[in-house]
C-alpha cells in the first residue's frame, strides 16, 4: 500500500480501540463506591474528599457560602458567626456520623436514603455517573 491510505493503515496496526462499556446505574454506583472507599481514610467524608480534589459533584465546594449555610442551617443557628472552613469541618464530621449511625458506606449512600443536605447518588444523571466513573476508576463507560 502506498500514499496516505498506507500510512493510515500502518498507524492503526497493533492499536486496540476500546469502546466504552455499557453498565447500569447500580453498577456505576458500585464502581464509584469501591473507588471512593479505597481512597478514603475513615476520617474524611466523600463530601470533603470531592471538595478537596474537585471530583464528582465537588462536595462542599459546589455550594456558595450562603447555600452551604442553608444546607447546614441547624449548625449555623447554633453558631451564627461560624466560618466556612469551620462549617465544612463540622459538616464533614456530621456526614461521617450519619454513615456510622445508618451503617452505610458513604455520605452519598446516606443522602440517597434521607435526602437531607443533598440527594446523594440520586443527584446525578447517567451521563454524570459515567463521567465520575472515568474520574474515579479510569474506566470509560456508558450508564444506561
Brief summary of the model shown:
By secondary structure, the protein is mainly α. It contains eight helices and two strands.
Q: Could you give the distance between the termini?
A: 42 Å
What's the alpha carbon Rg, rounded to whole Å? Answer: 20 Å
The geometry reads as: elongated
Q: Helical amount among residues, as a percent range?
A: 55-70%
Q: What's the structural domain tally?
A: 1
H/E topology pattern:
HEHHHHHHHE
Could you say which structural class the secondary elements and strand pairing correspond to? Answer: mainly alpha
- Main pleated sheet: 2 strands, parallel
Please explain how this structure is put together.
The chain has 144 residues and is mainly alpha-helical. The chain has one domain (19-143). The chain has helices at residues 3-12, 25-39, 46-53, 65-71, 73-78, 84-102, 107-114, 126-137, and strands at 21-23, 141-143. It has a two-stranded parallel ribbon. The radius of gyration is 20 Å and the shape is elongated. The N and C termini lie far apart (42 Å). Residues 4-10 have low confidence and may be disordered.
Amino acid at each position: 500500500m502506498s500514499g496516505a491510505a498506507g500510512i493510515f493503515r500502518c498507524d492503526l496496526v497493533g492499536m486496540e480501540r476500546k469502546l466504552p462499556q455499557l453498565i447500569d446505574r447500580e453498577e456505576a454506583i458500585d464502581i464509584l463506591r469501591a473507588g471512593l472507599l479505597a481512597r478514603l481514610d475513615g476520617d474524611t467524608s466523600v463530601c470533603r474528599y470531592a471538595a478537596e480534589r474537585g471530583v464528582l459533584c465537588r462536595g462542599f465546594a459546589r455550594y456558595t457560602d450562603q447555600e452551604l449555610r442553608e444546607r447546614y442551617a441547624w449548625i449555623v443557628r447554633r453558631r451564627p458567626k461560624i466560618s466556612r472552613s469551620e462549617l465544612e469541618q463540622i459538616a464533614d464530621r456530621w456526614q461521617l456520623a450519619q454513615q456510622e449511625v445508618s451503617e452505610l458506606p458513604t455520605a452519598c449512600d446516606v443522602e440517597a436514603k434521607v435526602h437531607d443536605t443533598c440527594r446523594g447518588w440520586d443527584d446525578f444523571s447517567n451521563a454524570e455517573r459515567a463521567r465520575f466513573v472515568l474520574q474515579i476508576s479510569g474506566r470509560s463507560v456508558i450508564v444506561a
